[in-house]
UniProtKB/TrEMBL annotation:
Record's keyword annotation contains Lipid metabolism: no
Transmembrane annotation, as ranges: 27-47, 53-76, 83-103, 173-195, 222-240, 260-281, 288-313, 319-337, 349-372, 378-397
Main subcellular localisation: membrane
Protein name: Multidrug resistance protein, MFS family
Keywords in alphabetical order: Cell membrane, Membrane, Transmembrane, Transmembrane helix, Transport
One GO term describing the cellular component: plasma membrane
Location of the protein in the cell: Cell membrane
Membrane topology term: Multi-pass membrane protein
Gene Ontology terms, MF aspect: transmembrane transporter activity
This protein's record includes keyword Flavoprotein: no
Organism phylogeny: Bacteria, Pseudomonadati, Pseudomonadota, Gammaproteobacteria, Legionellales
Length: 406
């Protein structure tokens, strides 16, 4: 039994081996940054309870943050192509740090509106530039890139989970301390990048392969396909922060908030434990097909939720959903990166982040409308249709793009 356990641990740890040292440093920054981004989920409480703003006013401030994320992804990617992702990451971290610092002292609506916009702008600017820098460290090793972007997804989810713990632990001291610590952490991260800059710049490499016109057109079609799927699937993902908790609480009134907490904790735990092994398992398969399967699993997961008359079904729904999330997000992002011109990789990654941000802005309103005037089950049926539709699209195009496996 002991030998079996040791063998299992050794085999499992191999999923995380082989990444360059500086990849791990940037993955750590993703985790730290995600822990501060997670605080933004609690900002509505701060605006309503401590700033004494009305709920509609708080909604406008959150919308300003959302608008910033939409623009930030694209601008961050565009600037990464122009002045290198290294500098964009430092600038973004400094702006984020300043935004959290000013949140401690701002009270008027116009200044808070501007602060929230730049907070969203810098948050997604960093996500885009850091991911581009992270993938460039892998040179031309496709499998290494796939594992790296998958592990970065693990780090992001781990950071969001840590933000909840951070809020629970420090929240008793008030948002003033939360904002101050977040600002300090982000500023220290920027200083760390400055100190590591020369080493990172020496290692980072850009692809020098030039694409023919036919290949460019083919790659553009694939990217349009993927970005379309990202927007549609993003509409489903957006329900996790809006209608999903309401539906779970209504379905299991005895558990209430505990049911939502269990499912969110399960989602994070599954990603942390199984994202890397699952990536290795499917690494040689057609990436378009894997992306489609991810969308399908997410849609089926929501379908199972509509039949969750017992909590065990909700858990099964979460497992299927999370498997789809692990397959879809990392693979879709990697396809966008691989199918872009060497001079526009940042722009393409920026479009990926911006498209996802748009769906996060549109999704809650659209989902809430369907939930209110139709029903929760109708919303999950629509989610299933989206998943099936994206799968069929990816399956169709995968027949003509078999080389996406390498």
């Amino acid at each position: 039994m002991y030998n079996y356990f040791i063998t299992f641990i050794k085999d499992y740890s191999e999923n995380y081996l082989g990444l360059p040292k500086f990849c791990w440093q940037k993955i750590s920054l993703i985790c730290i940054n995600a822990s501060t981004i997670g605080i933004c989920f609690f900002l509505s409480l701060y605006f309503v309870n401590e700033q004494q703003l009305s709920i509609p006013t708080a909604g406008l401030l959150i919308s300003s943050y959302g608008l910033g994320t939409v623009i930030g992804g694209f601008v961050g990617g565009k600037l990464s192509d122009k002045i290198t992702p290294y500098f964009v990451s430092i600038i973004s971290l400094c702006i984020q740090s300043a935004c959290f610092f000013f949140l401690m002292y701002l009270h008027s609506f116009p200044t808070l509106l501007i602060d929230q916009f730049f907070l969203g702008l810098s948050a997604y600017g960093f996500k885009t530039s850091n991911n581009m820098s992270l993938l460039s460290l892998c040179a031309n090793d496709f499998d290494l890139r796939y594992r790296t972007i998958s592990i970065s997804h693990v780090a992001s989810n781990l950071g969001l989970g840590l933000s909840g713990i951070f809020i629970a632990g420090v929240g008793t001291y008030g948002f003033f301390i939360i904002f101050g610590l977040s600002s300090l952490i982000l500023f220290v991260s920027a200083i760390y990048l400055v100190l590591q800059g020369n080493i990172t710049n020496l290692i980072a490499q850009k692809d020098t392969v030039e694409h023919h016109s036919n290949q460019i057109k083919k790659s553009a079609k694939i990217n349009i396909l993927i970005l379309s799927c990202v927007f549609l699937v993003g509409l489903i993902i957006a329900q996790l922060s809006s209608t999903y908790p309401l539906y779970v609480q209504d379905s299991f009134p005895k558990l209430k908030e505990l049911a939502v907490s269990i499912l969110f904790l399960l989602d994070t735990t599954l990603i942390v434990l199984f994202q890397a092994p699952l990536t290795v398992l499917v690494s040689k398969q057609n990436k378009l097909l894997i992306t489609g399967l991810g969308a399908l699993f997410m849609g089926v997961g929501m379908l199972i939720l509509s039949f969750s008359f017992i909590f065990a079904f909700a858990i099964l729904s979460c497992i299927v959903w999370t498997m789809g999330e692990m397959l879809f997000i990392s693979t879709a992002q990697l396809i966008c990166y691989e199918n872009s011109d060497s001079k526009r990789k940042g722009q393409t990654l920026g479009l990926f982040q911006s498209t996802f941000a748009v769906s996060n802005v549109v999704g809650p309103s659209l989902g809430s409308f369907i939930y209110q005037y139709c029903s929760g089950n109708i919303l999950w049926y629509c989610s299933t249709i989206i998943g099936v539709f994206c799968f069929l699209l990816c399956w169709y195009f995968s027949r003509f793009n078999a080389n996406t496996a390498s």
